[in-house]
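Wed. Picked up where I left off yesterday with superoxide dismutase. The coffee machine is broken again, so keeping this brief.
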Amino acid sequence: MPYEAKNFENLIGTEGFSEQLLKNHFTLYQGYVANTNKVSDLLVTLLKEGKMGTPEYAELKRRFGWEYNGMVLHELYFGNLIKGGKPLQMKEIHPIYLQLEKDFGSFENWEKDFRATGAMRGIGWVILYYDKTAKRLFNIWVNEHDIGHLSNAVPLLIMDVFEHAYMIDYGLKKPDYINSFFKAINWDIVLKRFDS
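Structure written out below (tokens, as returned):
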């Protein structure tokens, strides 16, 4: 069954994200969905033809992780944004808040670390991961879609820091984009990811 692109048009009008930026970003995401399907179909064809030992098969096997993770990371990224944002409610202390305090010393320290990770030079993703085995949170820099993931950890909050995520609106002012990202976080989604 082929993957289908999800519709994130509900994000149009989000403060700090122009319509042009979002539409371009949605188109890029749709390309990952299409390419995930294409690579998957080609791999099935090569398998049926007995061409597993070919350079084409090897390169497509390597490429699949790039396309697939590009698709999924964008879905998680768009999924943890909402117009107007939904802040983490401090009235009811949630276990994720307590975990952030435990692992980073305070919520504020976690936020500083997440922002600083996103502001680093380079392209990639910033992901707040939860390692269920160690019961620990990490802010991780993922350089490429298919490199640097924590294999046994759950992605909770994802921020795209490839240039396409901000340059139309912010040029080289990545910290301004990060400010807008923080205003649009849907903490309800992050909490659901943590709870599951």
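Quick read: The mean pLDDT is 95.
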